[in-house]
Amino acid sequence: MRRRSLLFATAGGVLLTVQRAHAEKTKVTLWHIYNRESDMIHSGIRMFNQQNADYQIEQRLVPYGQIEPELIRASATGSPPDLVTINDPDVTAFAAQGLLTDLTDRVATSKLIDMSVYYKGLQASGVWKGRRYSVAREINTLALYCNADMFRAAGLDPDKPPGTWSTVAAAAARLTNPAKSIYGLGFCAQQSEQSVFHFLPWLWQAGGSIDKLDQPPAAAALQYWTDMVQKGFASRDLIVQAQAEVMSGFLAQSYAMAVGGPWELPRFATEGNSTGASRRCR
Asked: Of 78, 105, 132, which marks where a domain is finished?
């Protein structure tokens, strides 16, 4: 298989300088999943192309659910991209097959990447058998987003958002309005790794761990989610909604509270303005 210099990064691309082969701009192919123009990858690509005299990034948008099989097919035919955005759980699988470029020495000598400033978990992310094959672009930190206007309308103070399971449930009960198809809480329960990320904080808060899913804390966390749906505070549709769709529901005021990440903030600057509701993240 024809090998090219590949850089695989968790949830986003980090660009490294490669050896210049021609006087004209060298094209660098980048596959990513970010279809919204508000995502920072688009401004990063524009900035790179404007400021770099040697290289030109050519991007290809690949739907989230298709990027892994597309990458497998491209690798099998010897036509993989130079850069690609994939989730960190997939890095080891591709590295184990010898499909990724070892970036250990390049990252160690890079003047742009300082791994010491990353959290310990992220320092380990992208490492397989002691060698680094990716660099994280962003992390899946999660928060509870609250619609401030809907809070006030329900007699709740958005400046004092719920911070415990019981207060979240109490707020969700007051915010739910079945007549208007408004649910108090939204989270991703889709059968994918996205729901795993959404469930982990609840699991950890219950005192559980991902390697002990048969223990009472894990059952308690799952029961909490189940209760929210059975009581009507969360929609049954959450089982088929990706996290982006959950946040779309939040922006449409179908969910008064929703679990999401900081990558949604640029989206609020555009889509959020059309609803006329102010929002706070806690």
From this structure: 132
| Last residue within a domain, chosen from 103, 132, 161 | 132
Element (H, E) at 31: strand 26-32
Report field, pTM of the whole predicted structure over 0.85: no
Is residue 271 within 8 Å of 277, Cβ to Cβ?
A: no
The count of other CB atoms within 10 Å of the CB of residue 87 is: 18
Distance CA 248, CA 170 (A): 23
Write out the residue range of the structural domain in which residue 217 sits. 143-281
Q: What tens digit of pLDDT does each residue of 233-269 get?
A: 999 999 999 998 999 999 999 999 999 988 888 788 7
Question: How are beta strands 55-61 and 127-128 bridged, if at all?
Answer: unpaired
44 shares its domain with 161? no
pLDDT tens figures, 13-39: 444 444 444 468 999 999 999 888 878
Q: Say if 137 falls within a structural domain.
A: no
Phi and psi angles of residue 149, each rounded to the nearest 5 degrees, phi first = -65, -40
Contact between 186 and 176 under an 8 Å Cβ cutoff? The reply is: no
Helix (H) or strand (E) holding 246: helix 243-251
- Strand 279-281 relative to strand 255-260, pairing: unpaired
CB 238 within 8 A of CB 246: yes
